[in-house]
Amino acid sequence: MLARAAAPKAKLVYNDYGAENINEKSDAIYEFLKDLKARRVPVDGIGFQMHIELDGLNLDSFSKNLHRFAALGLEIYITELDIRLKEPAEAAELRRQADLYAAILDCCLREPACKGFQTWGFTDKHSWCPVSSRVSVARCFSIRSTA
User: Fold this and answer.
1) In this predicted model, what pLDDT tens digit does every residue of 19-38 receive, in sequence order?
2) Inter-residue long-range contacts of 97-100, CB under 8 Å, 24+ positions, other chains counted
3) pLDDT in tens, 45-59
4) Its pTM surpasses 0.85
5) What is the rounded distance in angstroms from the CA atom of residue 14 to the CA atom of residue 46?
6) Which pairing describes strands 13-16 and 75-84: parallel, antiparallel, or unpaired?
């Protein structure tokens, strides 16, 4: 309530990772935000950080998850999307990665409550991925980019 009083026009967004699919964590977040809304605690949206691997997302579950949070009256934000691949990435894997980026964007576009779609960076030149997960092909412009 203090945040809303301090910045009445600011969007108050709960942002977390590992909650893209319907799972134990996303269920707990859902119940938490549902409770906040029921108690009239100001919360405007939910952010999905989405640091995922190529086979780490069930698109049907993801779409249903977006819909259930939207049904709470929350805006949806994809806040830090990257899709990690192990190096060296084959052309077919890069194609699947591109297709998954497009499919996630499509899920966002089909959900009217989805208000933002943001990737984690633009290229792999300065990626956190090699340090934290021993992969470095994660962004939508990978490997040979000079940006």
Assistant:
1) 999 999 999 999 999 999 99
2) 97/54, 97/137, 97/142, 98/140, 100/54, 100/57
3) 999 999 999 988 999
4) no
5) 5
6) unpaired
Place of tokens 């934290």: 132
Strands 13-16 and 51-53 come out as unpaired
Q: How far is CA 147 from CA 21, 37, 100, in A?
A: 32, 42, 23
Residues sharing a CB contact under 8 Å with residue 37, sequence separation 6 or more, in sequence order: 43, 72, 73, 74
In angstroms, the CA 108 to CA 55 distance is 19
Q: Which domains does the chain have, with CATH numbers?
A: 12-133 (3.20.20.80)
The alpha-carbon radius of gyration of the chain (Å, integer) is 17
What are the backbone angles phi and psi of residue 46, rounded to the nearest 5°?
-130, 135
Residue count of the chain: 147
Q: In sequence order, which residues have a C-beta less than 8 Å from that of residue 87 and are 6 or more positions away?
A: 135, 136, 137
